[in-house]
Amino acid sequence: MEITTERQLSFGEQLVGLNFNPSADDKVAQAKALFAKAADLLEEEYRAKNLAANPMHTMMYENAIGEVLNAQMNTVKILTLKY
């Protein structure tokens, strides 16, 4: 019996749904990995600099994360467009 342990996904990987790729499309996987990295960079900066202490920084961070997610979803839509 083989025991496998999966690593916990990073914040960005969870955000973009890195493991959700029903078509197993390599371009989708690449795009999701790129956007996950962008989200992880934002998250690391936000935590490292304690930007949560400033409401304006929090607003900008949350907006940036939302924009990363929006861009990722629209990119995947274009890559998988069938119509």
Structural overview:
It is a single chain. The chain is mainly alpha-helical and 83 residues long. It has a domain at 25-80. 66% of the residues lie in helices and 0% in strands. It contains three helices and no strands. It has helices spanning 11-16, 26-48, 55-80. The radius of gyration is 15 Å and the shape is flat.
Q: Descriptors for this entry?
A:
83 residues; mainly alpha; 3 helices; 66% helix
Order of helices and strands: HHH
Distance between the termini: 45 Å
Strand content: under 5%
Overall geometry comes to: flat
Count of discrete alpha- or pi-helical segments spanning 4 or more residues: 3
Q: Which range best describes the helical content: under 10%, 10-25%, 25-40%, 40-55%, 55-70% or over 70%?
A: 55-70%
Mean pLDDT: 93
Ranges with pLDDT <50 over ≥5 residues? none
Q: Measured on Cα atoms, how large is the radius of gyration? A: 15 Å
The count of DSSP E runs of length 2 or more, i.e. the number of strands, is: 0
The main β sheet shows up as: none
**Which structural class should the secondary elements be placed in?**
mainly alpha
Compile the SSE list and pairings.
Blueprint: H1 11-16, H2 26-48, H3 55-80
Helix pairs in contact: 2-3
